[in-house]
Amino acid sequence: MKEIKTKKIAIPDYPRGITFEQVWAGLQETRKIVQENAQLQKETDRQVKETSLYMKETGRRMKELQEHMGGLNNRFGEMVEHLVAPNIVEKFNEFGFDFHRYAPNVRIKKPRTKDNLAEIDILLENGETVIAVEVKAKATQKDVKKHIERMQILRQDADLRRDKRLHHGAIAVAIIDDALRSFIIKKGFYLIEQTGDTVQINVPKDFNPTKW
86, 92, 137, 200: least CB-packed within 10 angstroms? Predict the structure, then answer.
């Protein structure tokens, strides 16, 4: 008979003293750690997902709040306008003018296309002077600069109509701080402030209004 050769398998030489039970316990501990890590990863993924949903919901609510506040500010501005309009002619006439006409919500349009170029909240007029009043619940420097642009458009429109009257600007505001008050005066606008149920024109004695 032919002799069958066999290959010897090397058996690892484990350190003496380690039992099968100890090896098995180590494997079980490793398995437990792997399972715990998997559970932690799952919990982390869940928290990330919840945080993402929370951030989206917060963003949606913030947008709704901004829209609500914007609408509230517009309605408050309309209320201020209604408070200003009935007394404004009288207050400016006490200031030395002789206005006999005022008109709310006057729109300046392009001659050909009739597109809106600007809108004046209140326009005061007599034979020599025009004052365009911008009404704000709470104004900013940006609003003041915007009114300067509005006055320039009004002047250009008047020139096209050969209206040679002097044009001045005014800003009526309900809520204002000292810095903005100084900025409005510096730009040559009459400042109209609400006091209770009426309004007053608040400018220094040496005030020199800008002429357009």
Answer: 86
Residue 193 forms beta bridges with which residues?
A: 173, 200
Architecture of domain 81-201: 3-Layer(aba) Sandwich (3.40)
Domain layout of the chain by residue ranges: 81-201
Confidence of residue 62 (pLDDT cuts 50, 70, 90): low
pLDDT above 90 (res 150): yes
pTM over 0.70: no
